[in-house]
Design brief:
alpha/beta, Arc Repressor Mutant, subunit A, Rossmann fold, 2 domains, 8-stranded mixed β-sheet, 16 strands, 34% helix, 24% strand, globular, disordered C terminus, WH-like_DNA-bd_sf, Carb_Metab_HTH_regulators, DeoR family transcriptional regulator
């Protein structure tokens, strides 16, 4: 079995994410640096770089690796078990800044839904700081990370989709419909003309069900998702109580579709994240 199709553990996923972060900041990383940073063996560091190279995320060189440009198509491909892992690295700083703003909607004791979007992943540390939080999700990948952070998780069943590492379909839709949710955090791979789209109709059922039973509905959507299209519409921007995006998103993509009090635009930087709108 190739590295690309081997299921990765949450520990590996987090280590790979941090490796890409190092590359984004420095442009190059050495085996020795990875060994010191993560407390792993040189062999494990080489294996990590092999996996990331196969995914097109870097290029191995003697003694380490250098940054490699990643096309949007490869990052957002949904045709392999590694796709959730791949997508977690796309627009990483934007997702973290968006999550920091979205976390202000959280309160102790909440029951929240998080879908299988990788934009939800940076929310986990904020959830773990609050007591009495219950997280409902259809994502197996996210469930593993949530459990590692000591959170109470309700896992939604349904038809398993390896491409998303999540349960979807009618069974998932019906299960969510029997719940009451204080807040719903979801994302979308495509926004165009004020509409949110998804390439998988069974995933659309899950998102619609969650939005229907959520008191507050928060969309986490970085600039790379705008002007894209996919076959199935599941919501309008106006259906959300709050849309959080970053400053690289053109205003014309959201201003005509939302009142000012339902859009939050965050500034993304290495040193500081601030809410600017």
């Amino acid at each position: 079995m190739s590295h690309r199709f081997r299921r990765l553990t949450p520990v590996q996923m987090e280590r790979h994410r941090k490796t890409i972060e190092l590359l984004e900041r420095r442009g190059k990383v050495t085996i020795e640096e990875l060994v010191r940073e993560f407390g792993i063996s040189a062999m494990t560091a080489h294996r990590d770089l092999d996996i990331l190279q196969k995914q097109g995320l870097l290029r191995k060189v003697r003694g380490g690796a250098v940054s490699e440009a990643v096309t949007r198509a490869s990052v957002h491909a949904l045709d392999s078990e590694a796709s959730w892992h791949d997508r977690a690295r796309a627009a990483l700083r934007e997702k973290e800044a968006i999550a920091a703003r979205a976390a202000r909607e959280l309160q102790r004791g909440m029951t929240v839904f998080m879908d299988d979007s990788t934009s939800c992943l940076p929310l986990v540390p904020y959830l773990s700081r609050l007591s009495g939080i219950t997280v409902v999700t259809n994502s197996l990948s996210l469930t593993r990370v949530l459990v590692e952070h000591g959170l109470e998780v309700v896992m939604i069943g349904g038809t398993y989709r390896p491409a998303f590492d999540a349960n979807v379909g009618l069974l998932a839709h019906d299960a969510i419909g029997r719940l009451r949710l204080d807040a719903v955090f979801i994302s979308t791979p495509a926004v165009s003309g004020g509409e949110c789209y998804h390439p998988d109709q069974d995933s659309v059922l899950v998102k619609r069900a969650a939005l229907a039973v959520g008191d507050r509905r928060i969309l986490l959507v970085d600039h790379s998702k705008f002007t894209r299209v996919a076959p199935y519409s599941f919501a309008r921007l106006a259906d959300f109580t709050l849309v959080v995006t970053d400053t690289a998103t053109p205003e014309k993509e959201y201003r005509p579709h939302l009142p000012p009090d339902r859009i939050a635009v965050v500034e993304v930087s290495d040193a500081l994240t601030t809410d600017v709108g």
